[in-house]
């Protein structure tokens, strides 16, 4: 296969690119480094089937010669500190960026894959969230630049499907962690790891009773690849199903890195969801997919990456999962 | 004042342009006639202070020489049959169109006014809807092209306000009717009037127990003008406060035009809201605004327009409202 991937220098994009390259496919990566990292591009360049164009996909996609099988749109700031620093760019990559990618797919006769997000559910009033839940999103708040951009991107993807018959996929990615995250990602996983490695207090927002359900990045990549192999156009949740309170998560990170560091409580961020957890019934039944990497194992590998600045050696694939094992 | 108004050939845009022109202001109208009507432009051209540019605001706004006091973004298909026929264009005028208008306002040092919609509330679970209600919107349904475009437009407007300090206004317009509506608008007011004038059965969707709260267009124009005179950046609802069931509304239209026509029940449209009614506390307290034209009076004037194909003579302004009386 030959794929064009926007956001190839991002956390998830770089894992996805590596997965395809190691599977013998050709990847054209595009990134403007607004939140992506040049180091990921440099590592991917070691694969002869990888090429890269530095470009802002909101302003236009590169003129690619030859056929494409997939256009995969993974470009966007994704952590609250990043998208709140660049709200206009975040809105644009959801609208103009998505449409440019859809137009390229249409022009090339390629399939289209949209990386959407659990943030389309906002601060949900239904738990866990099935794909049929319409969400609870503040259209004007400080997070709206991301939430509304992704809801718009889904609506535009469905409009291209309805009007032009484009073969589309939409996933809603829940909290994902792993090696290759930016150290300054600004979300809780890297915050806690950074703080514990530096011997500083772990800052827990609010009373720490809000929960998250984390998935390790290789599980997400496996789900993405499986969805590419089926024909299904409605959104599909991909995320971890074991909720953990932020206070308990702080305990896990401390015990893994430095049990001596204290916990410090700080105010809750604006519009921060109290709880978010996917209903993965669709992914289970449609893809035979469920998360496989435990939080302990995933965190061990993530902490090793942040200690060493490089990826730890991959463990052997679990039995029966060899075909869909992710690249990291 | 000198204003640039997108959607000047639309139902509401043409009333707004006429209001400003009759108040001695200069209006530059922009429309691509996707849903606007050239006849409105021809009528507005009778004012020497009106100029018009036929352009698609999603692709770019005209290069206007000289200063502007306001950029007012009213361009968009607004009735379900129209925006479902043009979902991609509807999404674009909410994103690229809004951003082009914001950029023009920023470049000119002008204020910016966004026409948003009650559809940002979707099929609401809270009644009546205050501006603080986050809404209940299907991001993937057949109406999502309009609902999500307008939510995105609000988010982009707030992003320009936060990042560039733009002086912005946002209104959420609830069902509005009056002369100048397209005969093929496709929503209930013109549907019923057309059917009754033609001696055909009035088609009531579902069981007819879903409600709407209609406002006459001159009330809306009065609210818009008042909001321009205050400094307030959060969204403001403008709409009628008297809910009426669709079955009862059919009775009113029949009694006004042709009591002999029957009612025929047809299936409910997809994602059609069961009930929608504004909480206008903000408009009341901030603007001293409330609807003034009764449904009977407004319908009489609307029916006269559809019978004659021209605007009926305006009634005398109500006492105390002379300063803010709309143009029609």
Structural overview:
The structure is a homodimer of 328-residue chains. By secondary structure, chain A is α/β, with parallel strands linked by helices. The first copy, chain A, has one domain (2-324): Rossmann fold (3-Layer(aba) Sandwich), CATH 3.40.50. In chain A, 37% of the residues lie in helices and 16% in strands. Chain A contains eleven helices and 13 strands. The first copy, chain A, has helices at residues 11-22, 38-44, 80-85, 87-94, 96-108, 144-164, 188-197, 217-228, 246-257, 281-287, 295-308; strands at 2-6, 26-31, 50-54, 70-73, 111-117, 168-173, 176-177, 202-205, 211-212, 215-216, 235-238, 244-245, 263-266. In chain A, the strands form four sheets. Chain A has a seven-stranded parallel sheet, sandwiched between helices. A two-stranded parallel sheet of chain A has the order 7-10. A two-stranded parallel sheet of chain A has the order 8-13. In chain A, helix 1 links the parallel strand 1 (2-6) and strand 2. In chain A, helix 5 runs parallel beside helix 6. The longest helix of chain A has 21 residues, at 144-164. The radius of gyration of chain A is 19 Å and the shape is globular. The model of chain A is unreliable at 312-328 (pLDDT under 50). The A-B interface holds A 87-88, 91-92, 94-96, 99, 120, 122, 134-140, 142, 144-145, 147-149, 151-152, 154-156, 158-160, 162-163, 170, 234-235 and B 87-88, 91-92, 94-96, 99, 120, 122, 134-140, 142, 144-145, 147-149, 151-152, 154-156, 158-160, 162-163, 170, 234-235.
């Amino acid at each position: 296969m030959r794929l064009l991937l926007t956001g190839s220098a991002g956390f998830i994009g770089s894992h996805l690119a590596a997965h395809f390259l190691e599977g013998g496919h050709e990847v054209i990566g595009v990134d403007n480094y607004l939140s992506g990292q040049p180091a990921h591009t440099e590592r991917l360049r070691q694969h002869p089937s990888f090429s890269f164009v530095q470009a802002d996909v909101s302003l236009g996609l590169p003129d690619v010669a030859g056929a494409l099988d997939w256009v995969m749109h993974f470009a966007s700031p994704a952590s609250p500190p990043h998208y709140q620093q660049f709200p206009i760019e975040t809105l644009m990559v959801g609208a103009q960026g998505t449409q440019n990618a859809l137009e390229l797919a249409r022009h090339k006769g390629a399939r289209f894959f949209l990386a959407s997000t659990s943030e389309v559910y906002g601060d949900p009033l239904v738990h866990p969230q099935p794909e049929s839940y319409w969400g609870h999103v503040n259209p004007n708040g400080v997070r709206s630049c991301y939430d509304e951009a992704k809801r718009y991107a889904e609506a535009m993807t469905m409009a291209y499907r309805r009007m032009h018959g484009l073969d589309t996929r939409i996933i809603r990615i829940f909290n994902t962690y792993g090696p290759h995250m930016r150290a300054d990602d600004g979300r809780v996983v890297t915050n806690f790891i950074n703080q514990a490695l530096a011997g500083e207090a772990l800052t827990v927002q609010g009373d720490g009773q809000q929960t998250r359900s984390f998935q390790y990045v290789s599980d997400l990549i496996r789900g993405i690849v499986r969805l590419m192999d089926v024909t299904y156009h409605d959104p599909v949740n991909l995320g971890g199903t074991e909720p953990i309170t932020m206070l308990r998560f702080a305990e896990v990170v401390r015990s893994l890195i430095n049990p001596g560091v204290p916990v410090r409580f700080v105010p809750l961020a604006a519009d921060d969801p109290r709880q978010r957890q996917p209903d993965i019934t669709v992914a289970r039944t449609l893809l035979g997919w469920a998360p496989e990497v435990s939080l302990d194992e995933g965190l061990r590998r993530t902490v090793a990456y942040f200690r060493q600045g490089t990826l730890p050696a991959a463990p052997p694939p679990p039995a029966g999962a060899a075909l869909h094992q992710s690249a990291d």
